[in-house]
Amino acid sequence: MIDTPHIHLGSLLRSSSDAHxxxxxxxxxxxxxxSEQTLRFARPAPYEVDVNPLGGGExxxxxxxEPTLILECARCLRDVEVPLDLKLGTLxxxxxxxxxxxxxxxxxxEEVLVFGDPDLDxxxxxxxxxxxxxxxxxxHAPDCKGLCQVCGHDLxxxxxxxxxxxxxxxxxxxxxxxxxxxxxxQNPFTALxxxxxxxx
Length: 200
Ligand SMILES: [Zn+2]
Ligand SMILES: [Zn+2]
Hints:
This is DUF177 domain-containing protein. InterPro entries: YceD (IPR003772). By secondary structure, the chain is an alpha+beta fold. Helix content is about 20%, strand content about 40%. The site of one zinc ion (ZN) has 7 residues, from loops.
């Protein structure tokens, strides 16, 4: 298991040979807005990258990254596994003065990964690519009941003492009409069942 994905581009920069790297990651640590972030994976995430020189300090990276992200259910916050199969493709530009690699948009609108260390750390690039491809919000199940807004109880595990306080209309909208609820009893045809008809 490799902690940080690197590709060594020293000999590519010296002699224009191709470079290749592959491995598996169980998480990615990267920096965003000055703070360290961690992207967790449910299982080892394989990646494979090839870099080909284009001349003039530019090169092209292509490859594949297949992480299974662990995201939080938007309603109950339990872990949800989100498998991604990502095709990688980006221009690279070598600028010796650059500290940490960063993505910028070229005049052509294409993304360029600018880096200064020939031992290129792909952490931020892979994390950003995965996050861009990930859904903005996920549910662990389409009918997740969420958490009680009063006590935080996971309503998927059953009601809590506050459940009765939730207005019926709200339950209706989110969950539909549960079997045997007041709505079923209000059904006029259900009422007919209790009617005793005189026998002929
Ligand atoms: Zn949920
Ligand atoms: Zn509650």
